[in-house]
Amino acid sequence: MKQNRHQAIKRQLEAAAEVCLRQGVKLTDLRRRVLGLILETGGPSTAYQLLDRLKATHRNAVPPTIYRALDFLMEQRFIHKIERMNAFIPCTQADHFHRAVQFLICGQCGSVNEIEDPAIEKALERAAQRAGFQPAGAMVEINGTCATCARPSPKTRLPY
Ligand SMILES: [Zn+2]
Ligand SMILES: [Zn+2]
């Protein structure tokens, strides 16, 4: 792993520890390790992939260990769950406080990117309220092709 990336993850973990301190909750060594693994992956990882990697440092880890840690990290909004992939990704928004999480999911390379558009949040809230519904949160999963995959590669480009 590149040094600056390593530093960035370290800073994110420290920031997470501060948030926990303010919230009066504990970022235990195990929770911190699981968050670290998710940050290192960057992309989506499943609970079992995380469990495999967790075993390197926590040999006795079992599925409930990882699920409890993931629940905690989701509650604190450090990570999000992509339902359709049954996978977890780090939250990329600094304040971790958005009611409508928005993801761009590439069907070709499987990359997931979080975006934040307050207009989408407001539109969803209004639509729900019009139906007399009290929204507690929303997750928008947008399928398609990412910018990298959409770009034609030089090899496949037609000769005209
Ligand atoms: Zn987020
Ligand atoms: Zn892609």
Distance between the termini: 41 Å
Number of strands: 5
Strand content: 15-25%
CATH architecture of the largest domain: Orthogonal Bundle
Distinct bound molecules = zinc ion
List SSEs in N-to-C order.
HHHHEEEEHEH
Computed Rg: 18 Å
Per the CATH scheme, the topology name of the largest domain is Arc Repressor Mutant, subunit A
CATH superfamily of the largest domain: Winged helix-like DNA-binding domain superfamily/Winged helix DNA-binding domain
Low-pLDDT residue spans:
none
- Quote the average pLDDT: 90
Largest sheet: 3 strands, mixed
- What is the CATH C-level name of the largest domain? Mainly Alpha
What's the helical proportion of residues?
40-55%
**Continuous helix count:** 6
Shape: globular
How many discrete domains?
2
Structural class: alpha+beta
The largest beta-sheet arranges its strands as 4-3-5
